């Protein structure tokens, strides 16, 4: 993880109306999390580039509904995954999705612009796509489980209803200050590279598989427990959010290439696209290292000196190959075939059993 994952406590930047608690966390108003909540959820991809290296911002998800457990012998360790910043919109008050994104960035990560040292505005975000998670446990506007029942073998069984969960994914490109806040469902905002993210998940997967296969001595179990604790401290990203991040990078790249082509052809450009894609290319103007890294990303689909995201429109296997690198066949069974990808060449979209991605294209008017 980046040394700049959190601002140095002695240099914590505060706005005039901000306060901190005894743990030096920025105090935020949590009333936005109170019901009623809306149906839509936003996710925000944070990207910056330093010395030719691309970094991604995220938070540890402390929602009690998503916490995990790992058992090492007789000891069970509870932990939580990292993921993209985001949350559900408010159902009342006329909040737009851009309002939701702006508020979630502040609540979960205390986000401030590194240039202005102020909160970022909605028009600094680019709208990347709409994403639908399939077979997801559903919760109502009061954030309570939606229950259902059916007869199984002559008995009435009550269970949490599952269905589709819609997300709108936005992105911000540029340096930001990430600060710990008093938000109850997110903590430890930090930056991470894609290679670190994949390596951490691969190690986590290997530990899962070895524990599942059994036959380990007590010293081996202890060693794996220590390895896991170190991994958890460094940050383990949710598999679905890794998939989401790869998809968003793929579409940001495709969007930028399309924007440049149309601009060269003299096609009038949308003001929103102009702002966002200018920010996408801004790091390339800061240093030669960034310039070469940016060219590798746009021209070759390469990130972190070797991770090839996308070789071109005719190559539909790149993301699948990256996923196979971090999720072997045994783990794929556990993940519910999440690494089994099907390409829809005509729609330029990908689908798994758990996540469906639909490019939003130019239809961005829904935020107004």
Task: Please render the helix and strand layout as text.
Elements lengths: L36 E14 L2 E9 L6 E5 L2 E5 L2 E2 L1 E6 L6 H13 L2 E2 L12 E12 L9 E6 L2 E6 L1 E12 L2 E2 L8 E8 H20 L4 H17 L4 H26 L6 H11 L6 H13 L1 E2 L3 E2 L9 H9 L2 H6 L7 E3 L4 E3 L3 E5 L9
Parallel strand pairs: 1-11
Antiparallel strand pairs: 1-2, 1-6, 2-5, 2-13, 3-4, 7-12, 8-11, 8-18, 9-10, 14-15, 16-17
Helix pairs in contact: 2-3
Describe what is shown at a glance.
This protein is α+β, with helices and mostly antiparallel strands and 368 residues long. The chain has helices spanning 97-109, 194-213, 218-234, 239-264, 271-281, 288-300, 318-326, 329-334; strands at 37-50, 53-61, 68-72, 75-79, 82-83, 85-90, 112-113, 126-137, 147-152, 155-160, 162-173, 176-177, 186-193, 302-303, 307-308, 342-344, 349-351, 355-359.
Main features:
368 residues, alpha+beta, Nucleoside Triphosphate Pyrophosphohydrolase, 8-stranded mixed beta sheet, 31% helix, 28% strand
How would you describe this structure to a colleague?
With 368 residues, the chain is an alpha+beta fold. It has one domain (9-367): Nucleoside Triphosphate Pyrophosphohydrolase. It has helices spanning 97-109, 194-213, 218-234, 239-264, 271-281, 288-300, 318-326, 329-334, and strands at 37-50, 53-61, 68-72, 75-79, 82-83, 85-90, 112-113, 126-137, 147-152, 155-160, 162-173, 176-177, 186-193, 302-303, 307-308, 342-344, 349-351, 355-359. The strands form six sheets. Strands 1, 2, 5, 6, 8, 11, 13 and 18 form an eight-stranded mixed β-sheet that branches. The protein has a two-stranded antiparallel ribbon with strand order 3-4. Strands 7-12 form a two-stranded antiparallel sheet. A hairpin with a 4-residue loop joins strand 16 and strand 17. Helix 2 runs antiparallel to helix 3 (218-234). The chain is globular, with a radius of gyration of 21 Å.
